[in-house]
Amino acid sequence: MGSTLEISSNVQKQDQKKNENSSLQMSLNKKEGRESESLLSAQEEEDKENVEGGIWDSLQSSFASFTGTGDKGTLSQVDEKETLNIFSLASGHLYERLLRLMMLSVLKNTQSKVKFWFLKNHLSPTFKEFIPYMAEEYGFDFELVQYKWPRWLNQQTEKQRIIWAYKILFLDVLFPLSVKKIIFVDADQIVRADLQELADFDLKGAPYGYTPFCDSRKEMDGFRFWKSGYWASHLAGRKYHISALYVVDLVKFRKIAAGDRLRGQYQSLSQDPNSLSNLDQDLPNNMIHQVAIRSLPQEWLWCETWCSDSELAKAKTIDLCNNPLTKEPKLHAAVRILPEWTVYDNEIKQLQQRVLRKLEEEEDEEDDLNLNKAKDDHEEL
Fold first, then answer.
1. pLDDT-derived band at 115, boundaries 50, 70, 90
2. 185 and 287 share one domain
3. Average pLDDT over residues 274-303
4. Which residues does the annotated region (Disordered) include (predicted)?
5. What per-residue confidence (pLDDT) applies to 360?
6. Whole-angstrom Cα distance, residue 10 to residue 21?
7. For position 83, what pLDDT does the model report?
């Protein structure tokens, strides 16, 4: 499992006040002759052309009240347009260890300035204390965000399902309006490509892009539930997409009120405990007719469980998916599949050790100063 870093309270932790969910009321008049058209049509060309300015510009200050509170990391003033924004979340020491390695793999392969966004709610104090030192070492920005679950929205109780819900339900309100695009990367992934390429990928008007599940590992055909029954009928020839990696055009996402649509469908489906088994995945795939998904090229996500060995060489990201056949632990799979994983893991451990030594030295210096001050005070007496 590796060593964990226990950092004493040299870093002050201060929680910001939680945002109260707000509501914004608007009165809109439809044009003559267009009374029967939906205001939220995802296909409306006029919406596509005109929303960029106008009403959204006038609402920016009001909409800001919907966003989650954030704890900022490094103080870089890099323009958001020049920054690659990466969103991820983790809970527990194993996934936080995997998350640090995922971050390092992004930084090793991406030329752009990177800002990581993390869901604050379930991160350990150890992770939150270490991340500023990692940011200083590798030159990235970060921010911890949170958003209070709305009282009206059906609540999840299991931690894993809460995390899944935050992956998809609040994309429109977690981030400030200055963030135009964001890429979600699962903690248990290793990136081998420049993610700027994914940020620049043409989504063809869709609000987000996901990678479809691989079909190439034939021994897993019996586990591909989307190939039959409800899902086969619902998708009607479309692909079922995996939620481990996706890119979101937040401008488009907000234009078509995709967040409201997803939350509304979630509210309906989540009343049934047998629905949304894979919440973060099932919900966007269920809503594919209302909120379009742009399929990313298959090489953007390789997972040994579903993808053939021959496709690994060209993979741009590698996900440590659970395998229902082998049930191999993630750390074993990581070392076996990814030569760079151990290199990255050792690099992070070395940084943790340097940080720990630095903090111990600072603590010793502070003790010496206090001792000398006590001696001086005693001599004066």
1. very high
2. yes
3. 96
4. 1-51, 359-381
5. 86
6. 33
7. 94
Any alpha helices (H) in 73-121, and if so which ranges? 93-109
Q: Are residues 208 and 79 in the same domain?
A: yes
- Tell whether the model's pLDDT for residue 347 goes beyond 70: yes
Domain hosting 272: range is 52-327
Q: What is the pLDDT of residue 40?
A: 45
Mean pLDDT, residues 31-58? 43
Query: What total of structural domains would you count in the chain?
Result: 2
| Cα distances (Å, whole numbers) of residue 313 to 301, 307, 337 | 12, 12, 11
Give yes or no for a contact between 320 and 98, defined as CB atoms under 8 angstroms apart.
yes
Half-sphere exposure of 46 (CA within 13 A, CB side): 9
Cα–Cα distance measured from residue 186 to residue 113, given in angstroms and rounded to the nearest whole number? 20
pLDDT greater than 70 at residue 55 = no
Count Cβ atoms below 10 Å from residue 32 Cβ, excluding itself: 6
Residue 159 is assigned to a structural domain of this protein: yes
Rg of the Cα trace of the chain?
A: 23
239 contact partners, CB below 8 Å, separation of at least 6? 212, 213, 295
